[in-house]
Amino acid sequence: MWKWKRKEKKFVDERILKESNALAAKLYYATTILTILTLATKVICKLPVYVYALDLIVLLAGIGYICVCELRKGILFMKEKDEALKNIHQEILAKAWNIEFSIVIFGELVFLFVAGKYFFWVLSYLVVWFVPALVYTIAAIKNGWLIWGSKKREKDGKKNFKKRVVIGALFYGVFMGFPMLFKGGTFHPEGFLWILGMAAGWGIPFYLIFMLMMKVAEKRADKKLEEKELQIEE
């Protein structure tokens, strides 16, 4: 039984890794194309360099990471790849997408502080990260990729996730509610209530939605495992 559990977990982990990498690799291309389109639009509109500096950083980071990793593994200029090399290639693209995604999210927040009259252009970054993220989230739920794996991992995962949600919610609350502290050039203590309200309004729904997605994904993962067992028995 113990050996079967280990094999079962290994199968689930390998399936999730392979399937998620395959999708993330495609999303790398989608994110890159969207970034190029937003960059081209900003250049055509003759906007200042700092308005599209993030776009350049995203593209260079993603392409640079892929070139370095594939050059180190000796597959950069290989036209034909076997199954093993394709998996390596997809894994590298998946990590490149994670890098691009992280840079866009962080850079978007920074841009909000320096945008000035070009504040509207922050919406371009929303398109770049939101569309691929939505596609990945839907696929993760549908295919059962969001799983804890064990009771200990579930307990630790929920604990760490709660901490991150609290931090993220407070950051959002401060960012959105800070202007309420200094209206008209004077300090307003009631602004702290606004900050807490904004934090709770974002954090609580986000946490509940994620927990719901995890439950659905766990059920999907169990279903796929049962289907695989039936295939093996047949």
In short:
This protein has 234 residues and is mainly α.
Question: Describe it for me?
Answer:
The protein is mainly α. The chain has two domains: 1-145, no CATH class; 148-234, no CATH class. Helices cover 82% and strands 0% of the residues. It has six helices and no strands. The chain is flat, with a radius of gyration of 22 Å.
State the main characteristics.
single chain, 234 residues, mainly alpha, 2 domains, 6 helices
Distance between the termini: 20 Å
Output the helix-strand order: HHHHHH
* Residue share in β-strands: under 5%
Domain module tally: 2
Number of strands: 0
Give the low-pLDDT segments.
1-8
- The class by helix and strand makeup works out as mainly alpha
Shape: flat
Task: Please estimate the helix content.
Answer: over 70%
From the alpha-carbon coordinates, what is the Rg to the nearest angstrom?
Answer: 22 Å
Assembly type of the chains comes to single chain
Main β-sheet, in a few words? none
Whole-number mean pLDDT? 81
The helix count comes to 6
Map the helices and strands.
Elements: H1 2-44, H2 49-73, H3 83-114, H4 122-143, H5 151-177, H6 191-233
Helix pairs in contact: 1-2, 1-3, 1-4, 2-3, 3-4, 4-6, 5-6
